[in-house]
């Protein structure tokens, strides 16, 4: 039987008078690819912010592998095994590709980020392990041959992949990707899709927000649709494509 990795139960968040996420229920099964779609302002990024501890929900429960994580601080949630990328690129452009990934890895080490900067004597063995694991993450995203280049010198599509490698380096069980294909050309999207499948093959669960319907329909096992903070549909790509509420939310535009 499939195991639930992430569960939202009746989750609501209000910002003043605005209910950005309204009574949302969701279950994601381990090892699957789930997409979250919806028009602009539907509450998609807010759901990611709730799961990663940026905001506590106003009400409802969020469980990760059975643990109630409501109100946990973001670094604790990372330690539990949830990593994310952001809509806009957040790389250290003057640092190397490898160092950008190592920063993602340090959040799980005893020495931590400060220790890594100070490079105390006890840090060396840990540092070596971090380099190896970071190179593994780069390999999955096919960026290992660019480890020593400065991040700013990578083409756009590779910079976005580097962000995923950095998220992978914290050794997550669940990875949240916020518009991973945004700004990519069709070839870059195709490459990204095969890499996300490779990440899934490693046993990870993927939850992504994406506006590119073709990308979402091709990649996802299941899709949840939000509109004005409410879940209006959930199902397989085929079910979502033909769902009247979804078509209406997209103002009659063809979905997929
Ligand atoms: N910190 C905040 N304070 C006040 N309102 C917020 C805050 N964060 C989000 N909102 C509001 O909540 C609603 C949902 O925003 P959110 O960014 O989650 O939408 P989205 O579906 O990710 O949109 P997009 O596709 O444009 O990124 C919007 O009306 C937004 O203005």
UniProtKB/TrEMBL annotation:
Keywords: ATP-binding, Nucleotide-binding, Transport. The keyword Transmembrane does not apply. Transmembrane segments: none annotated. GO terms for biological process: D-alanine transmembrane transport; L-alanine transport; L-isoleucine import across plasma membrane; L-valine import across plasma membrane. The keyword Nucleotide-binding applies. Coiled coil: none annotated. Pfam families: ABC_tran, BCA_ABC_TP_C. SUPFAM superfamilies: P-loop containing nucleoside triphosphate hydrolases. One of its GO terms (molecular function) is L-phenylalanine transmembrane transporter activity. Residues 6-253 form the ABC transporter domain. GO terms for cellular component: plasma membrane. InterPro entries: AAA+_ATPase (IPR003593), ABC_AA/LPS_Transport (IPR051120), ABC_transporter-like_ATP-bd (IPR003439), BCA_ABC_TP_C (IPR032823), P-loop_NTPase (IPR027417). Gene3D superfamilies: P-loop containing nucleotide triphosphate hydrolases (3.40.50.300). This is Amino acid/amide ABC transporter ATP-binding protein 1, HAAT family (TC 3.A.1.4.-). It comes from Desulforamulus aeronauticus DSM 10349.
């Amino acid at each position: 039987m499939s195991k639930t990795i992430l569960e939202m139960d009746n989750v609501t968040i209000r910002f003043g008078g605005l209910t950005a996420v309204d009574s949302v229920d969701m279950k994601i099964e381990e090892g699957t690819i789930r997409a979250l779609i919806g028009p602009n302002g539907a509450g998609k990024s807010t759901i990611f912010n709730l799961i990663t501890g940026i905001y506590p929900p106003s009400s409802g429960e969020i469980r990760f592998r059975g643990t109630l994580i409501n109100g946990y601080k973001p670094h604790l949630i990372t330690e539990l095994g949830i990593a994310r990328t952001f809509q806009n690129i957040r790389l250290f452009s003057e640092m190397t590709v490898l160092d950008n990934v190592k920063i993602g890895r340090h959040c799980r080490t005893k020495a931590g980020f400060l220790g890594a900067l100070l490079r105390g004597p006890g840090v060396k063995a840990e540092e070596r392990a971090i380099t190896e694991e970071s190179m593994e993450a780069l390999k999955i995203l096919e960026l290992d041959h660019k480890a020593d280049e400065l991040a700013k010198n990578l083409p756009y599509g590779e910079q976005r992949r580097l962000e995923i490698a950095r998220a992978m380096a914290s050794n997550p069980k669940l990875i949240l990707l916020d518009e991973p294909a945004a700004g990519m050309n069709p070839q870059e999207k195709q490459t990204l899709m095969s890499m996300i499948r490779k990440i899934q093959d490693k046993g990870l669960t993927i939850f992504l927000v994406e506006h590119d319907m073709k990308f979402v329909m091709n990649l996802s096992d299941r899709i949840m649709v939000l509109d004005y903070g409410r879940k209006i549909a959930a199902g397989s790509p085929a079910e979502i494509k033909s769902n009247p509420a979804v078509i209406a939310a997209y103002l009659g535009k063809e979905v997929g």
